[in-house]
Design brief:
With 194 residues, the protein is of the alpha+beta class. It has helices at 64-69, 71-81, 83-93, 105-113, 117-124, 128-135, 137-147, 154-163, 165-169, 173-184; strands at residues 15-20, 28-33, 37-43, 58-63. It is elongated, with a radius of gyration of 24 Å. Pfam families: F-box-like.
Length: 194
Amino acid sequence: MASYTPWLNEHGALVDYTDTARAPAKDFFQLFMTPSEVIYRMWKIVPPTRPENHPAPLEIRDTWEEFKHDERLHSEIQRVAGDRTVHYLMNIIEGHLDYLSRLPHDVLIKIMLMLDLESIAHLSMTCRLFREIGKSNDLWEKLYKIHNKQPITQELLMLVDQKGWHDVFFTNKLQLQMQMRRLGQGDYAFITQQ
């Protein structure tokens, strides 16, 4: 088995996922996976109309080997988080770790800079991390500098402060010149989406 030590988060976990269960349940749960065990915690949320029923929080701890065969825990995780989460945990146990999303942000930005715009859009739809990076000003500033040869002026930086690098990147050059001229004259510059 591969060493997972370099890939642990600040809490010493490979997976540290907290969420609310899928509808219609409103239960709150946490999945915490270390290099040796899977910990599932669940807090059952009951309507205030049933005050006599206050279930205690639940915690299940399984080693990786026990988790492989614990159908009861699999069905509980499927109920609150879905089949994909169980498959994700099983893949980690089998040695298939998602290394890409665990890389530092600056490395991920360098990787995304090598992609075309359509691929960046598709990668941004895969998970929350890539969605955040796909919207980050750092990425779009670097893309703007790569694809636009005009110098970065003070007016452009003022427009970036208002709109962000993403919107400035997708503004056509004629529209951008007009907006920078308006900003230079003290008028309000607006960006229309195409």
